[in-house]
Amino acid sequence: MSKRPTVAEHLARQGVSRRAFLKFCAATASMMALPPGMAPAIAEALGQRRRPAVIWLSFQECTGCTESLTRSHSPTIESLIFDVISLDYHHTLQAAAGDAAEHHRERVQEEFAGEYLLIVDGSIPIADGGVYSTIAGMTNLQMLEESAKGAAAIVAVGSCAAFGGIPKANPNPTGAVSVADIIKDKPIINVSGCPPIPVVITGVLAHYLTFGTIPELDKLGRPTAFYGETIHDRCYRRPFYDQGKFAKSFDDAGARNGWCLYELGCKGPTTYNACATTKWNEGTSWPVESGHGCLGCSEPDFWDAGSFYKAVSMPISDLGKLGLAAAAAGAVAGVAVGLHNRHVKAGAKAAHKPLTADELEGDKS
Amino acid sequence: MSALNMERGVKAMMEQIDAPIASYFNSCVHCGLCADACLFYTETGDPKYTPIHKVEPLRRVWKQEYTFWGKLMSTLGLSRRVTDADLDAWQELVYDSCTMCGRCSAVCPVGNDIAYMVRKVREGFAVSGHATEGLAEAAIRTVNIGSPMGIKAETLKKMVASEAKASGIEIELDKPGVEYLLMLSSAEIMQFHEFIGAVAKVMDHAGATWTISTEAFEATNTGIQIGSSDIARQLVQRVVDVAEKLGVKTVISPECGHAYIAIRWDGPNLIGRPYGFQVKHIVEVLDEFRAQGRLHFDDSKEDMKLTFHDPCQMVRRGGVVEQPRRLLDLCADNFTEMPDSGVWNWCCGGGGGVSTNERAEPLRLKVFSRKKSQLDSIGVKAMVTTCSNCRNMLEEGLEEYGMDMEVLSLTELLAEHLDDSKASKGAEA
Amino acid sequence: MTDMELLNWARGPALEWATIIFVVGVLVRFLEMSLLGRKPDLSEARASAAGGGWRTVWRRSIPAPGLVKQAPVVIYAGYAFHIGLLIALLFFAPHILLFKDVFGLSWPALPFFVVDAATVIAIVALLVLLVHRLVNPVRRFLSSWVDYLVWAVTFLPLLTGYLAYHRMILPYTEMLAYHMLSVALLLVVFPFTKLMHTFTIFVSRWYNGAVSGRKGVQL
Q1: Where are the alpha helices (DSSP H) in B131-256?
Q2: Is the CB of C28 less than 8 angstroms away from the CB of A233?
């Protein structure tokens, strides 16, 4: 097993032409915002590499991230990338089950210690000793710590692994946390999104495989090549925002004319992701294009940002109701303070002793 | 311990603080525009004369006694109580450098009536023994003798007799059942007694019945100036008692600004009930005579270039604005308005008790430069006014600045130009 | 704490607490003031007190004669700031959404470039007023640390709003969070300072105008 074929050998065996591979490399280069001339270099680098071992751990997740990947049609760069790597362990995709699967994972961890790439989707519940999610008798926490030890790097795929995601949503009963909350001594790349864009996942993997380095990351550990700008700033509807043209409901003239969805709760302004440029389903469309505002799924705690249909400028809570309650309390308190003031003033009045000329006279001496 | 002490002073301020004052303190944004409205600041350039700063002791009492946070702070010992030393330090600001002219109140963009607050803060100063000596003495004389200058009924009788003789018109004192009861300011008895003759002439001309009371003749209310409602009430009560005893229809406030607001606007609130008679400024009465066609003038209209000095309390604080202008129109040909005339006029510098305060004299004369520049810009020969205190202050100011200008009483000027041959002589009364 | 957590905190608990403190604070301040009461005026009115009151409520927005010449900085910068602030506050589309959400009322927004210009004007005016406060003898004399605090809490929402809109200095999410937090701070400071004039100005003007109005003085 240690003598794995190089990527080029593997592709040849799979019947992928050199031309198709170059095309993939060009696409990869463009996705990573590299000059097109880099494609042969990428092809060279990738071709020479032995297919690296990859362990994919799924914790508190919905399989949406995996769904996102597998929904892509073949042959695509998404599927190609899986020809480039050797996916050694993945619950959903692997044929093996039970002890066999776990043994294989352990063997890969041992054999490729320090070399394998660890991919995680799903958050890790740590409340009550992590009992809320276990695999083969191991808590997710134990498995992550064990698998992370020998990993060269970790890719946290999806907002759950990257930030805790929906399981972490208030009140977070399982104590869900992100990979980065637990693993502090390994390079971690966060590929957030619920789910992340497939080409973003593969792009990140391609970068890692090509250069063997971690791409430039933003302060949330996300590759800036994909998460450098907000949806809003790259949105094709942005000109309507600037003109102040907003859809007021999902079926008004504004909505039909494709005006900005800001007022309908679009979280584009505060969401960093590549949807507006890469789109989804092989570039077919994306949420805003299909008429719905961005939910902000690639941002931490997007589930706790209030209604999806409240604009980012609106408070999360119902301040109107809260204000009324506060007004009632304020009125009661105010009347109490006011009555006390009157009482104090009445006291001052009662103590009043009329000023007389004699007193003025007496004061002079 | 003196009967006048700080505790009493604070209590007095607490009694005075009402919703308007609380609102004013809540509203102040420290924009400083009141300074630009105050001649004590514009003429000295000293920021301490900023009007709102003058009521700082009142603000502190308000904050500590009537605001939740202020109370909490003072309970925790985080705010300093108002002390005798504070009031000593503020005495000059409250009494020497404020004539309660109300120009700041008219300018304040948030609508604060600062003059009202100065009037109220003086209550605290008066009962804590921090009123100026001059005002305290004037108040004592007014209560004990009947007039701030110590004028007694005997003196009044002499002056009235001499004016009756000079004008050839009989003036009946203490006459019940007449229409008008004329009040007088001390200055109008001593310095400007021609005013009495002038009133006699106009009344006679218009055919109106009137009298002066020997029991309550003093119009000036030192209680208002020193800031004591107790004393002010006593003085108003004297007038009310006499007016109701004589059964007059109207009490005439003479040419004196503070006297006017004291009896006209503050009086009923001091005694706690509306009057059974009306109160009018002499100028209002004259203007009514004019409107009723009871005044007839000769052809000798005054052709000297003259202007009108609006007494703050009569005009901005009193609401008698157009009347003097209508009357001047009847007897003067060459009338010019001062810049900032009417409700925007600048004070003579001696209102609100400042004229009674010897210490304030240099400051008062210094800030007269404002009036000087107003006058310089129009170049008039004479200035007419309707307040004997203003008249005094203006004369002193003109002398100080070496300006040659006459200061006239509107009533006197009017009386001079009446055409006796066409007098109503009671025909229309 | 991530930018988004900060923004959620700003849009959530921070604004909730700020609202509670603001509403309770303003009402307590307002009632403790109003309930002090005012004696009825027994003098015979020459004209309508209420008429004078209402007149002064609006009329006092226009500077007194001669004042513009005497205090041009305060008047011009004061106007510029207040008008700029009101436009930015009330006619920026995202703000209107907030008002709609809280009060259920909405109105047409002004174009962004207008709001943008108004914001710049308000910011510049506030800077001018700050310098004036530091340099002019009267304003400096009148000012305590509270005046500078109030200046700062008024300035911050304008500045952060401007920077957020233009994606300057910090990522939008973070700047938007600071913008909302600065507003929360403004709301918290509001009831305890001269910011109360926003409401009491009408009361003060009315009282002042009513006294003059009774006397027949038109101010």
Answers
A1: 133-144, 153-167, 186-190, 194-206, 222-226, 229-246
A2: no
